[in-house]
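User: Run a structure prediction on this.
Assistant: Running it now.
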Amino acid sequence: MEKKPGSYYCKIANTKLNESAIAKCYEYLDNFHPDNDNETDEVIPTLQGLATYIGVTYRTLLNWAKRDDMDHQEDYVKFRGLLKDVYHTKLINRGLDRTYDGQIVKLLLGQDGIVDRSSVDTTSSDGSMSPKPSRIELVAPSDNGKD
């Protein structure tokens, strides 16, 4: 069966990692460049979207990343790094210009370990916030009963 316009069905392509597959990966990513019209309905690039675009399963993409005995595996690992960079950049920029909801951006970035954290530093470099020693004087009562 051939891919039908307007459907999600696609012919499963050759699952071998080769030059053609790498070229399709970059073609997919080019859809998200600001100067290009996006041929997909996707807002951000994802591995799941890439799998659908090139006609392999998501599991195949994961296997390509794990195996180091395949031709073009190094090219694929570099591509995945670039895909992740474009993904993060689009999320951050669209969150800042409020195109995307901030909570959704935070959630998606959090899945990759990018989280906001705050901490309170209770020390200072000049020592001005360091606790000062207290002096306690013990005074004995005087002999005549008066203080």
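DSSP finds five helices and no strands in the chain.
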